[in-house]
Write a structure and sequence with these properties.
Helix content of chain A: 10-25%
Helix content of chain B: under 10%
Low-confidence stretches of chain B: none
Mean pLDDT of chain A: 85
Oligomer: heterodimer
Number of strands of chain A: 9
CATH architecture of the largest domain in chain A: Roll
Number of helices of chain A: 2
Radius of gyration of chain A: 20 Å
Structural class of chain B: mainly beta
Largest interface: A-B, 30 and 31 residues
Mean pLDDT of chain B: 94
Number of helices of chain B: 1
Structural class of chain A: alpha+beta
Strand content of chain B: over 45%
Strand content of chain A: 15-25%
Number of strands of chain B: 5
Low-confidence stretches of chain A: 1-8
Number of domains of chain A: 2
Radius of gyration of chain B: 14 Å
Shape of chain B: elongated
Strand order of the largest sheet of chain A: 6-5-4-2-7
Largest sheet of chain A: 5 strands, antiparallel
Order of helices and strands of chain A: EEEEEEEEHHE
């Protein structure tokens, strides 16, 4: 039983979650082998690039290569922002002086370092706040 | 499970390699998937071809792919639709 609020928001653009990485481009007379692309990982979130003039209903996705390519929209689902509890962690290595600066900034803002970093991440990514569902 | 089928109808022309070796960011995953874990010198190349999309439209398209000696072209992807042909 979860206690988190039933808030949900679908990001209007910007991020999508991969639900298929099956190969989809073949030469005309080539057998359709059931291959998985290494350029997409199912379950991972990818950033959309601005569409170009002729993209049509394909999605321009920045894939594992770091470049943007056109993929079928059916290979992705919207990334859902909901009110779930913060259960995931991100670890990074930083110099001791930077950790000191983060601590000092957190003290000055009367927040924990974690709360301050979450706030900075949300500001930097300009994500919409979760909104209640009907 | 979604299924899509984009068909390359022509030979790929104006082929050019724009990255190789360490410049190929996903080379470790390519080695795992296509080279049985061997370290292979992958090249990231591009070219032009006619492609028929699932909706029946045919376009001149810029394609990108990875290729390596003895393995061939892998991961052909659609960089941009240049001009509609049909």
């Amino acid at each position: 039983m979860t206690e988190h609020t039933e808030q949900i928001h679908i990001l209007p653009g910007g991020y999508v979650r991969c639900i298929s990485n099956k190969r989809f481009i073949f030469f005309k007379d080539e057998p359709r082998r059931d291959e998985e692309l290494v350029s997409l990982i199912v379950g991972k979130v990818y950033k959309l690039a601005p569409p170009e003039a002729n993209d049509g209903d394909l999605l321009r996705v920045i894939d594992e290569s770091g470049e943007d390519y056109l993929y079928p929209a059916s290979y992705f689902e919207p990334l859902i922002v909901n009110g779930e509890l913060a259960t995931e962690s991100v670890m990074t290595h930083i110099p001791a002086w930077l950790k000191g600066v983060l601590y000092a900034e957190a003290v000055a803002a009367d927040k924990s370092v974690s709360a301050l970093l979450r706030e900075w991440i949300e500001e930097r990514l300009d994500l919409p706040a979760p909104v209640p569902t009907q | 499970m979604p299924t899509e089928d984009f068909e390359i109808l022509s030979k790929i022309t104006r082929v050019d390699t724009f990255a190789r070796g360490p410049g190929v960011r996903v080379r470790a995953r390519l080695n795992h998937q296509y080279a049985g874990g061997r370290r292979v010198n992958w090249r990231h190349s591009k070219g032009l071809a006619e492609v028929r999309y699932t909706n029946g439209e045919i376009w001149l398209v810029e394609l990108h792919w990875f290729e390596a000696h003895g393995i061939g072209r892998r991961e052909i992807r659609d960089k941009r639709k240049i001009r509609r042909l049909l």
